[in-house]
Amino acid sequence: MKERIGDKQPSVAIIIVNYNGTEDTIECVKSLNNINYNNYRIFVVENGSSKKPTKDQLDYLKGHAAYIESDENLGFSGGNNIGIKKAIENEFDYVLLLNNDTTVEPDFLSILIDVATKKDNAGIVSGKIAFYSKPSHLWYGGGHMDEKLGGGAHERWNDLNPEDTGEIREVTFITGCLMLIPTEVVKKVGLLSEEYFLYAEDTDFCYKVLEAGYKLWFCENTLIYHKVSASTGATSAMTQYYMVRNILYLTKKYRTDYHKVNARFTYQTIKDVIRGRKQFAPVRCAYRDYLKGTMGKWEM
């Protein structure tokens, strides 16, 4: 494990939340061991997994990261907040939120830190994310708030990964899969909102950071690889429930025109159900709980 080394580089707490994905988490940690940045420490938060790591897996993680266990699944925000609090307690300069089902290029963190330290009012910094199974194509190539349907939208999804241009540009949405955040920003805007439990909490955090006057920066010359919904399943009932309920809630929380936006979103959701793209049961539950104001973990 690479430790903090004084003031030569800003110190970074890399936070990885594990839920029933220990093999992925170990692969992620191994890729981090090869990066060309030195002043970091990895925090693995075991988020109440039902599938516990083996002794060998546990020994590896404890030997290469600060290992923190939660007795229950606290969701994406709750798990990351455990690590963020530890980073603030230990006076790290930055936190890096990184999905456990990712691997990284060796220079990714050096580039992100360079941008974060040079750009004015940097609130969150991120970079390109390619599909792990199809590394020539992008999963995230920048993002923006979806003015029509609410939530955060990925740009250049499934496009060919272009040649690095070195471009650094402002965006309005950054996925929680890869977020470099100054700890001073977290102190000002607060931790990740935990009422979502899963999905849309990254969009909520982007809203908070933007409203506080910070900027979101996207780097074209960084790259990591994402296995995409490895722990939940991209089309599972759980995923569909949280995505529908949380987008409705998020839009109402931040948009003055939420009636119109949620009406369009509902129309699109109904079409998706009719076409078989979404399941009726989780969508019905999502609308029921949204209307009742029920947030947090879905009690299926």
From TrEMBL:
Determine the domain of life of the protein's source.
Bacteria
What InterPro entries does this protein's entry cite?
Glyco_trans_2-like, Nucleotide-diphossugar_trans
Keyword field contains Ribonucleoprotein? no
Gene3D superfamilies from the UniProt entry: Spore Coat Polysaccharide Biosynthesis Protein SpsA, Chain A (3.90.550.10)
Under Gene Ontology molecular function, one entry of this record is:
glycosyltransferase activity
| A family per Pfam | Glycos_transf_2
Q: Does the keyword DNA damage belong to this entry? A: no
Alphabetized SUPFAM superfamilies for the sequence: Nucleotide-diphospho-sugar transferases
| Keywords attached to this entry | Glycosyltransferase, Transferase
- Hey, which pathway is this one from? Cell wall biogenesis; cell wall polysaccharide biosynthesis
Domain Glycosyltransferase 2-like positions:
14-184
Family that this chain belongs to = Belongs to the glycosyltransferase 2 family.
Q: What is this protein called?
A: Glycosyltransferase
> Species name for this entry?
Blautia luti DSM 14534 = JCM 17040
